[in-house]
Specification:
Blueprint: H1 2-28, E1 31-33, H2 39-49, E2 55-58, E3 61-64, E4 67-71, E5 77-79, E6 86-89, E7 95-102, E8 107-115, E9 122-125, E10 128-138, E11 150-155, E12 158-163, E13 166-168, E14 173-178, E15 181-186, E16 189-191, E17 195-200, E18 203-208, E19 211-213, E20 217-222, E21 233-238, E22 241-243, E23 264-269, E24 272-277, E25 280-282, E26 287-292, E27 311-316, E28 319-320, H3 329-339, E29 346-348, H4 356-359, E30 367-370, E31 373-374, E32 381-383, H5 386-391
Parallel strand pairs: 1-2, 2-5, 3-6, 4-7, 5-8, 6-8, 7-9, 8-10, 9-11, 10-12, 10-13, 11-14, 12-15, 13-16, 14-17, 15-18, 16-19, 17-20, 18-21, 19-22, 20-23, 21-24, 22-25, 23-26, 24-27, 25-28, 26-29, 27-30, 28-31, 29-32
Amino acid sequence: MRAERVGAIAVRLGLIAGFVTLVQAAMAADFVIQPGPDAQDEIQEALIEAEPGQTIALAAGVFHLTDGLSLDVDKVTVKGAGMDQTILSFKGQEVGSEGLMVTSSGVTLRDFAVEDAKGDAIKVMGADGIYLINLRTEWTGGPKETNGAYGLYPVSSKNVLIDGCVAIGASDAGIYVGQSENIIVRNSRAEYNVAGFEIENSYYADVYDNVATHNTGGFLVFDLPDLPKQGGHDIRVFRNRSVDNDTPNFAPEGNIVGMVPQGTGFLVMANTNVEVFENEISGNRTANFLVGSYYTSGQEIKDENYDPIPKAIHIHHNRFGKGGWAPAGELGEFVKEITGVPVPDIIWDGVKPLPQYILGTPEDERIVIQGNVKNEGEVTFMNLDALFYSIWKVLATPSRDLDDHRGTLPPVKPVTIPGA
């Protein structure tokens, strides 16, 4: 009898606690929306009617949505009860490509999940101030070519904060920022994506205290041709873990990340002034760290204004573990042909502007490697001299000598974002 009374009391307390939570949410928000058959219309209506400074609260539970959502009002907050408590499920999506599209500024999205979007999970376009906090994006069927391309996808934006987020299963990049500036990506996790984290054609980014694991490639810093914003520069990537990235590449055919070999820890391509330090990089079967020109991609360059060569890349005080024991893919086979197995910890394709083959590289454009350590043994390196190796192997002089890469470069300045 006592047990029954205790159970009844516990049930009542649970109901009271739930009611209190609901009341608190209602008091703190201008719109409170519960899961249910009308949730699709209610959420979109709130996103349209919200005024700057207002909050839309999504209660705990699963919202089954059949159409994409969009927000174009500035300074709105959309919040859930937690990334594992409030779930926007687009498994039955019939209309639209994105799960949630934001085209306004000063917006905060936090504490909910977007699952199984038909296309990108959360896309942000043209924002000045976007705060993505404690979000999860996931394709729950595992890595598939038919999954959406991007989990978190801010593009052409300024003052971008991604903090405490999780991205799983994207067929391009789990956490991506492109053609943007003033970027902080921190305390986040990416797994089972083609690219875990990607900073592309962007200026001024800090990427730190993140984990990339079980992706095809962990961290990518790219600059690509044929885009309105080019010349990516001033990127810091530090205190991250890029470990055990072992998922086969499942990018759709023709996608640029389709060239990333299974098991790549870091890939820095065609950027300028990139500082990579104090990271743990281990368990990546093709290579722990690759630095290359856009020629590495094997794609033709038609953009006359594009600079395909990386410059001022500073790789220092990282810790390396096992890597390069089984190179994969076309790029991996090319590297393996030159280096043998295991592939050295740090690979540079060695491609430079043609005058530098005769006159040398200016001090402020060098690839500088210093202070790195390894769990067992010494950190290894190779300059592939890929340009000459590709044209006429007899002329190529691949080198494992790190002497030309010792020294230092000026530190990249930290990024600050209002309200971050």
